[in-house]
Amino acid sequence: MEFSELIRTGRAEALLLPGPGQPPVRGTLCITSHHLLLSAGHGSPGDLWLLLRNVDAVEKRPQSLRLGDAANLHPPDHFYQQVALQTDAWRLSAVNRDFDVCASYPPALVVPVGIGDEVLARSARFRQGGRFPVLCYYHTTNGTVMLRSSQPLQGANRRRCAEDEELLRAVLALGGGRGLVLDTRSAQAVQQARITGGGTEAKAAYPGWKRLHRPLERGRPLQDSFVRLVEACTDPSLSMDRWLSRLDGCRWLTHVKETLTAACLAAQGMDREGVCILVHGAEGTDTTLLVTSLAQLILDPKCRTMSGFQSLLEREWIQAGHPFQQRCAHSAYAQARPKHEAPVFLLFLDCVWQLSRQFPLSLEFGEGMLLAVFEHAYASPFGTFLCNSEKERYLCEVKTKTHSLWSSLNQSKERRRLRNPIYTPNPLALWPSVEPQSLQLWAGLFLRWTRPPEPAQEAWEQLWRIVTEQEGGDTL
């Protein structure tokens, strides 16, 4: 029996309490087999769409829905851009065509020409979840590359894999002969992982590769930090001293600093020291993606355009297997505390906002783009952030049964709203300051419910008017 057949009343008048300090919204509440829709009627700023999976609790829990049903039945318009290579030393491999090697990754992967698919398959069996080292960025200036993977399954016996070692030797041969393994776990965490079969690359087995630990928080500690920050930001009774104390105590800006530092280290290794970079933690789907995606924003001007940023999100977060369904299941307001929830993707967006604030001319998209992506990652009528892996999206036919978020954001009216009016292409790398004085709370997100949005919107419109008048027409 389908869930839609159990809906006895599909429409009712309802009252929505959106958040602290916000007036209630009265409208018509509709329920479908996949969404709750609150329509406030004519003249309202917009309808509210809520995926059923984002509902914290109900009095009677319905049966589970099929993911393939949670969608609009029209073909999407996704971005599928492979890493642009300027050399014939790399090739596209279809070893993961049927997702029998890894549930993540797109079907076509960029690998060294001299490495056969059988080597890749054996390397995948040596890496957790089948995520063997794959190329995610090629630095055209000096030919160095950045790869991402999961941890090697060494175990307590320091097991080796000849094919995995061969793959990383081939990468060094093409990328300058020196490599750096940036492990996003502490050395102590790696030792504990060996007890359960994990580990990291042994120095003797991978000559030419040095190892560096840059531990980044994920999971429950990161989620707790997020919750404490939101609680502080929505408490109007705090004095100045108490506010600053709670802001420091939640350690959110510390996570931002540590993440940007690790990304800068990876970017600096490629750009200034000419070494290849392999980034991984345990699974390679959380903190790994933080580092690889931010490093590309730092180095590559194409990733700072609107289309390039969308492609980056597709390649480094969606196709690479960040489990959005688990990580973004609820929010900081949720009463439940799911085991797998963590705002890793939000932390990435915050770091991007810090870059945009320090380099206000260098990113083509503005804060509105980051806010839109954040909102749709948690609750969206589009299918872009559904499921936990590329394989799940394939099996649920998400690409053919849902709309793409990008097709909506790329409409002319939306692009004008989201585009940075003072954008000036910058071919140089962006090296952000990570000093405590240089990092700020993202007020546009975390204080959006406690301060009126009108002044910022008016300033944004005024800036657009000034730019348009100077250019003598519409910039789009």
Q: Characterize the overall form.
A: globular
Number of helices: 17
Average of per-residue pLDDT values: 84
Helix-strand sequence: EEEEEEHEEHEHEHHHEHHHHHHHHHHH
Beta-strand share of residues: 5-15%
Question: Largest sheet, if any?
Answer: 5 strands, mixed
Please compute the radius of gyration using only Cα atoms. Answer: 23 Å
Q: Output the strand order for the largest sheet.
A: 7-8-11-9-10
Broad structural category: alpha/beta
Any low-confidence stretches, pLDDT <50, length ≥5? 59-84
Number of E-type strands:
11
Determine the fraction of residues in helical runs and give it as a percent range. Answer: 25-40%
Distance between the termini: 49 Å
What does this 3D model show about the protein?
It is built from 17 helices and 11 strands. The protein has 476 residues and is α/β, with parallel strands linked by helices. The strands form 3 sheets. Strands 7-8-11-9-10 form a 5-stranded mixed β-sheet, sandwiched between helices.
Describe the SSE topology.
Layout: E1 11-16, E2 25-31, E3 35-39, E4 48-51, E5 90-93, E6 109-112, H1 117-126, E7 134-138, E8 145-148, H2 162-175, E9 179-183, H3 187-195, E10 209-213, H4 220-233, H5 240-250, H6 252-271, E11 276-280, H7 287-299, H8 306-318, H9 324-327, H10 344-358, H11 367-378, H12 390-395, H13 398-401, H14 405-409, H15 412-418, H16 443-446, H17 454-471
Parallel strand pairs: 8-11, 9-10, 9-11
Antiparallel strand pairs: 1-2, 2-3, 3-4, 5-6, 7-8
